[in-house]
Amino acid sequence: MKKKKIGKSTIWQMLQDYRFNSVLVRNFVMILGILFAVFSMIMLVVSKRMDTLTEQEVQTVSENSLKQTAQRMDTVMNEVIQISVQLSLDDDIMNFLLADLEDSSVNHEETLVARTKLKQYADIFSYVDSIYVYSSRSRYLVTEEWGGNIGEFDDLTWYSNFNERIYEPARMISRPKANKYPYLITYIQPVRLSQMHFLGGIIVNVDVERLGEFAVAETDETIMIVDRRNHILFTTNKNYKKEKWKETDADVNKMLLQEVESETHDWKYVSLVPREKYQHYRRELKRFVVYMMGLISLCSIIASVAISVYSYQPVGSIVNLLKDPQAYQPSKKNGFRKDETQTIIQNIAYNFYSNNKMQKELQDYLTMTNQAQLTALQAQISPHFLYNTLENIRWKVIELCRGDNEASQMILKLSELLRISLDDADQIISIEQEVRNTRLYVDILQLRYESKLEVQWNIPEEVQKCAIVKVSLQPLIENAVYHGIKPKREKGIIQVYAEKDSEKLKVTIRDDGIGMDPEECRILNEDLRNNFQFKKGHIGVRNVNQRLKLLLGDQAQMNVTSEKGKGTCVQMALPYREVE
């Protein structure tokens, strides 16, 4: 088929014709909706996944940062513990703890030696605020800068904890120095000669601010050290300088919480990172999602248009065919691939041409009917006038010849034959009656040709009552005489016989005339199969064939075989049924 392309003008015309009811528009909306929904779901899943990955990455970074801070803090605290242990084992410090100092003079030799020792340690470690050595025996306390009775010392916020828990192991507490400033992490190391012989303690004070500068990187996060009792030992955020820590204190919607247990101490490190610190990642992600959604929308529209136009082409081809069926021509391309659309188009075209053909045939039948009616009307113009005229001629001949003769017999038979032909009461008669009627015509011929014509009849008794179209044998015999035997110029034989073959009645008229050329015979047979129009002025084989098909349908068939110089055979195959 010459396939019309569905171009812009055609699509525009379709949209004008059908508007939003067009299959093209509905397909476009459906495909766009599906593509947009699918791509949107994918983008939402990807966005959610990327958001989760970003959250996990932030948590991982925060956790790694907290672990590094914890390692530095543990290192510092280990150094603090090491300082206290070394001092508790130092001989000079032990002499101070064992000395019996009766006055508060700072010039005792033991006091001076202890202060010198403490100053050495305090100068080495920058994060150490101060170191105290307290003797419970003499109630004497010495620092790197001062020594005297503990009652005269101004920083005693550690003392109640020390005095109430003298039998407990070493520990750390958080406190303000002298109830003011700075905030300190104080490590209290009790010193004993034995389990029940308490000598005093080593108190190492770590400055929180210096510790933060040393161990915590500059960051917006909050770092805390929380002991097993949830006491806050250290924090970089003044808002969390409380005695106890609760996880509920942190707003998880605004803060990212991380906790890491210390590897060497009985506390944990807590990190609080403001979520807004990572909001720029989320904003970038949202911006990326918006850009991608815009790109996806554009791609969805383009893809929807392309798919809709492509899928609409078969529908457009069918619509074009329905609008202009005459433009359809079968494809003659080699390798033509038949699909559903082509099947529909071919069936529509076939039905169109079949309808046209049927309409043309119907018109031809109507024309033939009108012609037949006109012929019948013309034939019925005073038929008694013809009979009476022939009868008058016959009696005139008898009168002139003074008796019955061949001419009067011919006129009599012709009159009878004419009566039978013009009688339209029954168009289907028995073959017995048709043979009887045809013999009238044969008798006329034999009066004319005498010994030059012989007609042989072979009609078995079993087919005598079979139905046949009236006046179907006479035209065939006439055709055999004038086109076969007469040109031969010698005696001719015509054989007429009938037989039952399955559900068919076969009637054969065979002559030994001059015959026909093969090409002429082929054209005649093709004409008998395909042509149903009456040939004006011709009542031969074609006329009989046309009347057979009109009265008996396509089951009635005629076939002609002929051989040049040997004769012609006309065979009629009719539906086998008997006349009531």
TrEMBL record:
It comes from the Bacteria. The chain crosses the membrane at residues 24-46, 288-312. Pfam families: HATPase_c, His_kinase. Residues 468-578 form the Histidine kinase/HSP90-like ATPase domain. SMART domains: HATPase_c. Keywords: Kinase, Membrane, Transferase, Transmembrane, Transmembrane helix. The keyword RNA-binding does not apply. GO terms for molecular function: kinase activity. InterPro entries: Bact_2-comp_sensor_kinase, HATPase_C_sf, HATPase_dom, Sig_transdc_His_kin_internal. This is Sensor histidine kinase.
